[in-house]
Write a structure and sequence with these properties.
single chain, 226 residues, mainly alpha, 10 helices, globular, zinc, metal-binding, Protease, S2P-M50-like family 1, cell membrane, transmembrane
């Protein structure tokens, strides 16, 4: 039980921020491009309670990947629906990659500063939990960003593909959306897509962003996910 609360204290803030910012970014870009649906429904807020899906949040702590309630977007309200759909969909992963980058830079800076402090000093003890949360933030944001780029609607990668493909192919892929979640569930739970595709790309992102602190991110992630 003690381990559970320790893990929760490290994971909760980065996970909520990653999921919340991902969804708000969709609504924000849609709002800028002509669709006010998210604004009218009170979803352009960083208050995580407005976005949380209970089961999706629990899945973050169980399997390391989760989701929030999708921010509503009426693509018909966009000024150029086919083109603007790409930007609305891409906003989520771009936000996660930005958060991963900022977290990695902050983690590297604080870890370097902490290494110059005496062990068990008050400042060192205050920095340690922040560094651990930043390490998990690097991982969870890379994972969410990369996972959402899978080109299967309703994932963001699928909607980006719909916006980029020629009309006939885009229409065929868009019709696939009602069945997309079934395919995603099958991919996640009944194939080795995580082991063979997603995890190697996440590991590459960690090594690039975290640099000499990559080992810290791997160790924190391994502790939290086991």
């Amino acid at each position: 039980m003690e381990n559970f609360f320790l893990k929760l204290s490290i994971m909760l803030v980065p996970a909520l921020m990653a999921i919340t910012c991902h969804e708000v970014s969709h609504g924000f870009i849609a709002d800028r491009l002509g669709d006010r649906t998210a604004r009218f429904m009170g979803r352009l807020t960083l208050n995580p309670l407005k976005h949380l899906d209970l089961f999706g949040t629990l899945m973050v702590f169980i399997v390391g990947i989760g989701w929030a309630k999708p921010v509503p977007v009426n693509f018909g309200n966009l000024r150029n629906p086919k083109r603007d759909m790409v930007w609305v969909a891409a906003a989520g992963p771009i936000t996660n990659f930005t958060l991963a980058f900022l977290s990695a830079m902050a983690m590297r800076g604080l870890a370097a500063a902490g290494s110059m402090l005496p062990d068990s000093s008050p400042l060192q003890m205050a920095l340690d939990p922040i560094v651990l949360m930043l390490a998990f933030s690097v991982y969870i944001n890379l994972l969410l960003g990369i996972f959402n780029l899978i080109p299967v609607p309703p994932l963001d990668g699928g909607r980006v593909a719909v916006g980029l493909l020629p009309y006939r192919q885009a229409e065929a892929l868009a019709r696939f959306e009602p069945y997309g979640m079934i395919v995603i569930i099958l991919l996640v739970f009944f194939t080795n897509i995580f082991e063979k595709v997603i995890s190697p790309v996440v590991d590459l992102g960690i090594s690039i962003l975290a640099g000499p602190q990559s080992g810290l991110v791997y160790n924190v992630t391994h502790f939290l996910m086991r």
